[in-house]
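Schema walk-through. Below, the input block comes first and the output block second. Nothing else is stored per chain. Lengths vary across the set, and this one has 69 residues.
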Amino acid sequence: RCVQIGLLCVEHQPVERPNTLELLSMLTTTSDLPPPKQPIFAVHNIDDRSNSNDLITVNEMTQSVVIGR
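--- output ---
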């Protein structure tokens, strides 16, 4: 239950995260929790058709270089 609540608290879009009152309710009741959405990045096989055990992560990243004057 705590892991599921934690996953809800780290949703990519802040609007989809529970607010403090919702979080308190989730922690103090035994009602069903909404399922978390798929993470912004996920682990996939390199080639789903192969039997390879090599895994990669799919993630978009930019890198900036700061150069002083």
